[in-house]
Amino acid sequence: MKKPDNLTGAASAKFDEMVALWSRVLSPSDAAMVADYCRAFVRQSEAEQKIEEFGTVVIGANGVPTQSVWLAVSDREGKTMRSIAALISKRRTAPKQ
Known about the structure:
3 helices; elongated
């Protein structure tokens, strides 16, 4: 499977890992979907590092405690990964024709 040219760094390495893991169920047209999974993985990892550093609640510009934007990023990217993984999982369990 050809890796998208715009996939770099940690997402590129994750792409290689996921293609190897999902090799039995992927087709060449799945490259963009796998790339999306990998980008989401990297973004969620970065967000989790920020949550560890700053916490889930931060003091806003007005001095009021508020939920960290990093928590929203982590949640959104986690949903993206679960959605893509569910699509791949369905292929693994689908009866062969």
